[in-house]
UniProtKB/TrEMBL annotation:
The keyword Zinc applies. This is CXXC-type domain-containing protein. Gene3D superfamilies: Methyl-cpg-binding Protein 2, Chain A. It comes from Mola mola (Ocean sunfish). Residues 117-164 form the CXXC-type domain. The lineage of its organism: Eukaryota, Metazoa, Chordata, Craniata, Vertebrata. PROSITE patterns: ZF_CXXC.
Amino acid sequence: MSRSHPDEGWVDWPVLGEGWKRKEVVRRSGSSIGQKDVYYMGSPIFCVFCWSYLEEIDESVIMCSKNTSIHIHEYTNLTVCACFCHPQWIPCGQCVGCHNTVNCGQCVSCCFLCLLLILKRRSCGECNACLCRKDCGTCDFCVDKPKFGGSNKKRQKCRLRQCQRQAMVKPHLFLMNSLVVSGHFDIVLVLNTSLLTFDRDTYISSTNIWEKLNSSHQKEATRINSNTRRGIPHGKCCLSENLYIMDTVVCIYFLLCRSLQITQIFSLADNQAGSGTDSENQLMKLLHSLRSSVLPILWYAIMVDGPQLQLIQCSKQSIMTDTMVLIDPGFYYKVTVQKQPLLPTHSLYDKYPGRLTTVTEVVNLLLGLEKYVVCQGLPPREHLFHKEPLILERASTCDFLVKRKLSMCTSCRALRGF
DNA sequence: GCCAACGTTGGC
DNA sequence: GCCAACGTTGGC
């Protein structure tokens, strides 16, 4: 990760809260050289994902990677950010969504809050115990109650009325540190890098999650629990351990769609079935099919203005993280890398149909994409002691995507003199 | 690690 | 303001 001088270029950014500052930095190294990063600096923020304070991270600078910027927006304002709907997932701090102060109850951030409530709740509201309204008057908790002549020391719910499915399990907080994703599975919980899978009909509770954990999972959950017990921040958890925050948001969508029958999160107001042309409706059908299908891991379909169907790789860990597939209403598609379209002559296009009309065709293309890596381009020139950002140079006919065993396309290679 | 005890808080 | 009971913690 490149850094500029820590004291330079900061501007006040009150949208994140009083005292917050923001600056933009162009990357000067790595394969994504020339890309712009946004950094924020401000007061400690409590992060519900990590159940700890984000502070003193990276020399007091909280990097606005796709991950932490979501933290910032979620838990300083607890409001909806339309940037969640943006294919790049990077809050700009300027758009309508970033300035919104009202929860819509439908977007990803709202649904995440809803999910937290679901995971935290102590009663399912459906079992016999939850439906029972009368205290037994004989259990130890009832006997403790003043109305039964007790001393009110225990202060607990009648044992017969305690939820059978959501009964208290010690490691509550670890749920906050677990992240819900969906990929090849119906429902997946991620505890750090370990996956726990559930059928879509499984009632998710702290009990059955706990039962699925192996001993090391349980140990880790207990450790997190222990660290958070008195609100002690556990260091750089956000950046070093929970690498799946970004993925979480996507997965919550799946989980909520399946459990709460929320069918749309992204704003599709201008593209509702019936309001557009037939071709737009067909594209919408493909979108719905893709969303109800199993896509290669953490590829996700969204609809944006145009109308245009976009497939994005949501995992920052993926080498395809800057790659998008764009499908127009005629089902013709193009692939872009770091917003640059592949040349129409790219060999990738020879291997797949010119139009992507079915889920199978889309999935095949995505699987095919994962066999490529991004061309490294030309090596940066020496810019030591030079303040201007380095811009990655490529051949004008750069392939952008090359086979994994190559690091550079033939055009860039030729330009380099190999 | 378990649990009695109790401070706290949301709902009425 | 009252009450039910949640969530935390100190003691064992």
